[in-house]
Design goal:
Distance between the termini: 8 Å
Strand content: 5-15%
Strand order of the largest sheet: 1-2
Order of helices and strands: HEHEH
Oligomer: single chain
GO molecular function: oxidoreductase activity
Number of helices: 3
Mean pLDDT: 87
Largest sheet: 2 strands, parallel
Organism: Hucho hucho
Low-confidence stretches: none
Protein name: Aldehyde dehydrogenase domain-containing protein
InterPro entries: Ald_DH/histidinol_DH, Ald_DH_N, Aldehyde_DH_dom
Number of strands: 2
Pfam family, one: Aldedh
């Protein structure tokens, strides 16, 4: 996950993480570590909730250019 996130940010992209509803804690803890780093606010965000609803909202948003699942 770290190398994929680093590559996306290095290319100038913002990243929205949508953790698994079954196991959200590792992603939430990783996000807390990122918040204490030197990354500007908003470069990496995390959204929790129903994956289908979040995917629909992201796919239909005018600013979102691509969605990639890992």
């Amino acid at each position: 996950m770290i190398s994929l996130l680093a590559a996306a940010v290095a290319m100038g992209n913002a990243v929205v993480m949508v953790p698994s509803p079954k196991y959200p804690l590792p992603a939430l803890e990783f996000f807390q570590v990122l918040q204490s780093s030197d990354l500007p606010g908003g470069v990496v965000s995390i959204i929790t909730g129903g994956r289908d609803q979040l995917t629909q909202a992201l796919a239909n948003h005018s600013v979102v250019k691509a969605i990639w699942y890992w």
